Every structure is written in C-alpha cells, then in structure tokens.
Amino acid sequence: MSLLASPTFRRLAGKLPFKPFRNLPPVVPVVRLAGVIAGVSTPLGTRVINLATLAPQLEHAFSAAGAAAVALAINSPGGSPVQSALLHTRIRELAAEKKLPVFAFAEDVAASGGYWLALAGDEIFADQTSIVGSIGVISAGFGFSDLLARIGVERRLHTEGTRKSLLDPFRPEKPEDIERLRRLQQEIHQRFIELVRERRGAKLKDPEANGVFEGEIFTGQGALEIGLIDGIGHLRTVMRARFGDKVQLRGFGAPRSWLRRRLGLAEARGGDWAEGLLAAAEKRAVWERYGL
C-alpha cells in the first residue's frame, strides 16, 4: 500500500494546514471475489467465496479513509445461492450505510452466483470476452446404486420422517424426490429473477426472448447489448476515467495461509485429503461448465 493510500496518513494529513495534504487523490478500495461460492472451505479445494471469510475485508473496504467508491473484482462461476445472497446483501447494506457507489467488474466469469454478486454493483462492467449470465439454478451429484450392487455392498439408511432423505446417492432416484428438488430450485430461481429485475430494471432488453432467465450465458459484449451490464471496461481504466489518473486503488481479499499461498492448497490431515479431492473435482466441474 502506498503512503498516500494509508488510512492513518490520510486522517492525519486532513488536519494539516497545507493545501496539498488536504486535497489527496481519492481512494477506491478493490474487493476481490474470486472462486467458487461455497459455505465452507475444503482441504484440497480451490479458493472459495463466502461471507465468513470476506466480511472483515468488506467492512475495511467500505470504511477506508478517503474512499470515493468501492470496486468489486469478480471471477466466479457461481455456487451457493445462500452465500451469494448473504454477500450481496452485506455489500448493499454497507453501500447504503457509507453512502458509497459500488462498481462491479467481471473478469473471466461472472455467472450464476457470480452474476448475483455482480448485481451488488450500481454499475457492472466486463471485458468483451467475459462470460456473464447463467441466471438459473443447478443441482449436480453422483449415483452409486448400481456400483454398490455389483460389489455386494448393502446401503442401510434409517430415518424418522418420510421426507428426511432426499436423493440419496446410494439408492435409485425416486420421482417424488426429483419433484421436491424441482420445487426448491424453482423458488430459488424466482428469487434470482426478482433480484435481476430489481437491480437492472429498465436496462434489461426483452429478457424472455433472449433466454436471460433460462440459464443462458453471454459474452461481455452480448451482455451489454441486452442490459445485463453497463459497459465494456476494465477496473483500472474505468476507475481512472471516473476519479482521475491519480486515484489510489487498494486491494482487499480473503486472507490466505502461508501454505495456501505457496502451494495453492489448504492445510489438511489424514482422511481430509480424500474428501478434499472429491470437493476439488466438483469445483473444477463448476468452472468447466464455462470452458475454463
């Protein structure tokens, strides 16, 4: 961090009688939202986004001395709708409390829950080739019932409550379970649609005809044409155009341990590694839906 962007320096400088110190360049805190959106981290999983890890960084960003706005650098294929909603709500609450505009910038991907996060921005920008959209709900898993039968393993599951078990991966799918899941997905999908309409308003152009609410994905250029974003542009370029060439960009993001920084892995012991491998494969599958 440069001296001019230091909160302590800016607070002290504002009290000095010298004009150059009273007119310091504006600061734009940058919060990086990169990874799959998930409630918890996994031992071998890729970096995840959730409120628990990002709440302190959001608080610091919106409280930064001299802040003229807050920028969100988003690179996420989505994930948990709950964590997407929690982060979106916290960002909007802080924006209202601190009276700061929020600019969202899509990098490689701002899709599904990643676009939910982008909707926290008062304005949304992307590269021409960014992937944006995927306004829908997906549930994926594995079925092992045939495998267990082949190797002679019996699945034993006992519940109190006829609806306690839902889509057990070790038993054949039941039509009634699929219908229950579909109802849940429809409720979440409807909330997503309502949020898009609320945040984008009249900027949206014929969303039904363009498949906007059917999970369609668009390039940044396509997203601009139908009103999902406000412009084509990159964070540094747009912020310099809005706040001047001397604007100070300050980075904020979830803290990472020494081991994670060095190896890209979380700490783990014993049986955690097997669980982590499966979780990492699942997260990789989420990214690969968008060709990344």
Descriptive overview:
- Helix content is 41%, strand content 16%.
- Strands 1, 4, 5, 6, 7, 8, 9 and 10 form an eight-stranded mixed beta sheet that branches. Strands 2-3 form a two-stranded parallel sheet.
- The radius of gyration is 22 Å and the shape is globular.
- The two termini are 32 Å apart.
- The protein has one domain: 2-enoyl-CoA Hydratase, Chain A, domain 1.
- Strand 5, helix 5 and strand 6 form a beta-alpha-beta unit.
- The longest helix is centred in the middle third of the chain and has 26 residues.
- Helix 3 runs parallel beside helix 4.
- By secondary structure, it is α/β, with parallel strands linked by helices.
**SS class:** alpha/beta
Share of helix, binned: 40-55%
The amount of beta strand, in percent, is 15-25%
Treating each run of at least 4 consecutive H or I residues as one helix, how many helices? 11
**Distance linking N and C termini:** 32 Å
What is the CATH C level class, in words?
Answer: Alpha Beta
Number of domains: 1
Order of helices and strands: HHEEEHEHEHEEHHEHEHEHH
